[in-house]
Sequence to fold (70 residues):
Amino acid sequence: MEIKTVHPTTVDGYIAQYPEDLQHTLLKIRAVIQESAPGAEEKISYGMPAYHLNGKLIYFAVYKRHIGMY
Fold:
């Protein structure tokens, strides 16, 4: 997989830049976060999807061979 150099400003834009099979996985991750922390604010931070709820909660990012969660 090619690493993207696009810098999206929304989580939708971040997810849309990847192939459909990977988008499916990213949407599952997003859904679990939203279900677990329904009040979390969704944004892009450090180029990654980020969720804040009373401070930083969780980030995730796509890499060449894995998806990292922080």
Summary: The chain has two helices and four strands. The chain has a mean pLDDT of 93. The first strand starts at residue 41 and ends at 45. The CA atoms of residues 41 and 52 lie 5 Å apart.
